[in-house]
Amino acid sequence: AWQYLYVAILIFMLIATFFYLLNTINRQNKLATMRKAFVNNMTHELKTPISTVMAAVESIQRYGAKDDKERLDKYLKISKIELEHLSLMIERVLNFDTAETNGIQLVKSNFDIVKTVESCIESSKVGLLKQVDFEVHSTLDNPIIYADESHIKSVLRNLLDNAIKYSNSPVHITINLDQEKDNVILKIKDNGIGIPKEHLSDVFDMFFRVPSGHLHNVKGFGLGLSYVKQVVEQHGGSVSINSEVDKYSVFVISIPNKKI
Ligand code: ADP
User: Fold this and answer.
1) Which ligand 1 atom is nearest residue 208's CA?
2) Is 168 in contact with 150 (CB distance < 8 Å)?
3) What are phi and psi of 63, to 5 degrees?
4) Helices 69-102 and 224-234, axial angle in degrees (round to 10)
5) Which runs of consecutive H residues, i.e. helices, occur in the chain?
6) Does the beta carbon of 195 lie inside 6 Å of ligand 1?
7) Which of 209, 218, 227 to mutate to test the pocket of ligand 1 (most atoms within 8 A of CB)?
8) Given phi > 0 = left and psi -120 to 50 = alpha, else beta, which region is 9?
9) If you take atom 16 of ligand 1, which residue's CA is the nearest one?
10) Torsion, Cα of 30, 37, 233, 189 (10° steps)
11) Does 166 sit in the ligand 1 pocket, CB within 6 Å?
12) Minimal-distance CA residue to ligand 1 atom 20
């Protein structure tokens, strides 16, 4: 009887190993496909602003725009917006890369989170092609938090940019800041396309983008939310989503902040 037991255990272990390997291979394949999509996306996204700036510069040089003040201004403005966009993209990929290799190193200080939200809103307004309005509500008695200001800014920029990207014009974004026990709760709500229930937990995965035909003329690398999650968790906080397709998405961030 013992022999049977051994054989049974052996067979069980073999089957378990087989499924484990299958699962690993599947995951690796999925990751490889997603990485490929990422490189494609990135090449495409870097090319767009570069060719726009190139066209603007050529117009200035060759087609006499430098003698026409109005056109010159217009081309310079376009170039500036595109270069800002390019530098933001590069910063994100670099941020992400450092985070992946070294983990995120937090440099904490005391800062006013409401002011930071407002300044992020101002910078996300640059070069908007849609009509977007923002509403900020804070019930915080004391808006000073102890956290990494620069990473929190990137988190906010990522969430605001997504809210704009994944909503049709006119976009309405509401930001709420509240204190719940020892945490500051930050909610960013949009009136966008929403996220299907089955993908709510995937969107925080590296390279993941909700598969959808019409959506993916929207640019992106699928890195933003995984970075957001890393930063927030590194602060000892958490992120969650609430969403209804074609109606809204709310991203909720909780950051520990002991009331003194
Ligand atoms: P991306 O660069 O693709 O925007 P993210 O990691 O920021 O990457 O987001 C992952 C995916 O989650 C997006 O591709 C999109 O499908 C979905 N998503 C993120 N934010 C929103 C939002 N506010 N509304 C609807 N879908 C969103």
Assistant:
1) 10
2) no
3) -100, 25
4) 50
5) 2-62, 69-102, 113-124, 149-165, 224-234
6) yes
7) 209
8) alpha
9) 210
10) -120
11) yes
12) 162
ipTM: 0.98
96 lines ligand 1 (CB under 6 A): no
Cα 5 off chain centre by: 52
Q: Report pLDDT digits (tens) over 50-77.
A: 888 888 888 888 877 778 888 888 889 8
**pTM of the shown model:** 0.76
Residue 74: exposure state from Cβ atoms within 10 A (0-12, 13-18, ≥19): middle
Q: pLDDT for 4-54, tens place per residue?
A: 899 999 999 999 999 999 998 888 887 787 777 777 767 777 777 888 888
Residue to mutate, 39, 91, 155, 166, ligand 1, most ligand atoms under 8 Å from C-beta: 166
Question: How many angstroms separate the CA atoms of 228 and 160, rounded?
Answer: 12
From CA 237, how far away is CA 229, in angstroms rounded?
9
Q: Give the separation between CA 208 and CA 222, rounded to whole angstroms.
A: 5
Task: Round to whole Å and give the CA distance between 211 and 93.
Answer: 22
CB 245 within 8 Å of CB 194: yes
Phi, psi for 82 (deg, rounded to 5): -65, -40
Ligand 1 within 6 A of CB of 223: yes
Instruction: Give me ligand 1 centre to Cα 218, in Å.
Output: 9
